[in-house]
Structure formats: C-alpha cells, structure tokens
Amino acid sequence: MKMPELKIGHLISRLPIVQGGMGVGISMSGLASAVADAGGIGVIAGAMAGITEKDIATNGLEANCRALAREIRKAKEKTTGIVGVNIMVALTHFADMVKTAIAEKVDLIFAGAGLPLDLPGFLKKGDRTRLVPIVSSGRAAGVICKRWYQRYGYLPDAFVVEGPKAGGHLGFKAEQLDDPAFCLENLVAEVLSEVKSVEAEHGVRIPVIAAGGVYDGADIRRFLEMGASGVQMGTRFVATHECDADAAFKQSYVDARKEDLMVIKSPVGLPGRALRNQFLLDVAEGSRRPFRCPYHCIKTCDPENSPYCIGIALAMARQGKLKNGFAFAGANAFRVDKIVSVKELMNSLESDYDRVTA
C-alpha cells in the first residue's frame, strides 16, 4: 500500500509528509525546495530568517522580511512543489512576516507558538495562501475555528497537532512532557474529534497533521490509521545534505546518544528540547553570558533576566559553533545514524511505510 496524498485546499502533496519549519536558518530555501521536489511539503522557517543579513541587529524588521521574501523566491525557482513558511505568533514582527509571505504567494503559512487568532485578516481577495495553525490541544483548535469563522467567515485549511516529543520550543508545561495523558496519539484523537464536529457543522474538510516524534514509516502509518491526513517531521530532515545548517550542526545529531536529549528552560519562557552540550551545562550551573539584546525577536523574551541570548546561541549553532550555542532536536534525534539526501530519506520513508502495510 502506497502512502496517500495529502490535500490541503487546492494543494495536493504526493506524499503526506510536511517538513517542519526549523528556525534561525536551519530550514531555508535549500531544504524546503528539496523536500517539495521529493513530493512532500517544504517549509521555510520565519524565525530569524534574516540572521545572515548585515543589518539584522540594527534593522530587524526589514532584514527578516527581506530575507523571507528572498528565500520564498529561491525555493519557488528551484521547485514546482509545495512550499510553505512557518511563522511563530510570538515573533515580534509576526504581522509583517505574514504580509510578506502572502505577498510572495507562498502556498501555506504554518503558525504556532501562540494562537494565530487574527491570521485570516491578512488575506485579501484573490490570495491563494492556505492557513494552517499549529496547536497542542483540541480546545485550542476549537477556539481558533470559532474565532476565525465569527470574525472572518474562514476556517483553518488544516491543523498541525504538535506533541511533547518535538524539538525546539514546546507548547507544554515541563511536567506535561512525560505525562502519558499528553502523548501525541491522545492529542491527535482530541483534535480529530473537535475537527469532526466543525466539519459536520460547516460541510468542510480540515486535514489534521500529526507532529512531534514522528520518525519512520511505521509512525506515519500509525497516525494515518488513527485518522490523521499527514505527518510533520523536523529532526529527520536536519540530517540531510540539503539542510541549510552547517555540517557540524548535522553531525551533532549523528553523534547524539539518548541521554544527550534534555529539556531546557528557554529565555522566551517555554521549555525546549535540545542536545546536551557544554554550553547548556554551563547555563544549568548558573553561569551567565552577558549580552545586549540585538534582535528583539520574540515578544515573550526577558533579556534583563535571561542568562544568554537565544537568538545568538541558535545563530552560533547554525554556523557549527556549538561551543557558543546549542542545537534544538526532537526526542528521537539519537536514532539518527547518518546524513543522507532528502530524496534518500523520502524513499526510505516510503519503503518503510510500504513494508509495514504489506
């Protein structure tokens, strides 16, 4: 049995696989276009998209919007596949980034790290960009559907349901991360139930995409059999040749052991999953890295009381300078044992899926 297509509005992806948007330069046009070309949905991360721009510290708004527009154009030049962007609601320049993405006619906007309650308000008549909120509960999905329909007569084109095994910033309390009640299977079932009632009321179809800890073909099959229409995967795509991060960043995944995965308290006020290294151990022991906030990238960040600048730390990691930063990673990062091409990865996922369903 072959993997089914993933349909989101007028968009049809040959494979039901969305590449997760990984910020501060990890998933840009190089990775996104390769995934789109291989039959999935490639996603450019909006968070600090302009990290390599010369004026990022002095003119963050323009630098980030300029870089995002350029990356969308580059991706579209490289592929005829589906290209989306991930724009965190918590970003200081969220509204401007959304306007930029729509103006560039990006196929999809994925929006999480907060409830994107006003997202449809950015669409104008004739815009074809599809809107996909990222949620961690059925309640959040219900609130978004109600708000969007009441204010804009619009319903989400799909939902991504992100569980606690994801990498990066997590939309859960620290004590919920290992609580079986919050496992991805339960969250997907919860959102599917909420969506089903919305679909019945409005006569629409809203695909649900499972994310956070999805690693192989067996995982994909399990969530599709539950009723999900697709999956989102981030960690697997880091260990690809086309990933936009430095080789040392990718190698940190290959070298990782299970005990190297740790949950940190991020300066932005959320728990986050990352790979243990000396930088994070020093922070855990109370050492501070004095800094001036150069980016003002996240609304919830408290520079005055933060032990380090997360923007700087992630930018250093992207460059492979892991002594001065760290790598976010999903709970299954330790299972990565080699760096492959996106095409090889997608082929292996298809083969795994076919083998499991045979």
Describe the structure.
- The chain is α/β, with parallel strands linked by helices and 358 residues long.
- The protein contains eleven helices and 13 strands.
- It has helices at 29-37, 60-78, 94-103, 138-152, 184-202, 217-226, 235-238, 247-255, 278-284, 310-318, 342-357, and strands at residues 6-8, 11-13, 17-19, 41-45, 82-86, 108-111, 130-135, 159-162, 168-169, 208-211, 230-233, 261-265, 271-275.
- β12 (261-265) and β13 form a beta hairpin.
- α1 (29-37) runs parallel beside α2 (60-78) and α6 crosses α11 (342-357).
- The mean pLDDT is 92.
If helices are DSSP runs of H or I spanning 4 or more residues, what is the number of helices? Answer: 11
- Class by SSE composition: alpha/beta
Strand content: 5-15%
Q: Numbering strands along the chain, what is their spatial order in the largest sheet?
A: 3-11-10-8-7-6-5-4
Biggest pleated sheet: 8 strands, parallel
> Taking Cα atoms only, what radius of gyration do you get, to the nearest Å?
19 Å
Distance between the termini: 7 Å
**Would you tell me the overall average pLDDT?**
92
Secondary structure tally: strands = 13
Q: What is the ordering of alpha helices and beta strands? A: EEEHEHEHEEHEEHEHEHHEEHHH
Write down the overall geometry. Answer: globular
Helix content: 25-40%
What low-confidence regions span 5 or more consecutive residues with pLDDT below 50?
none
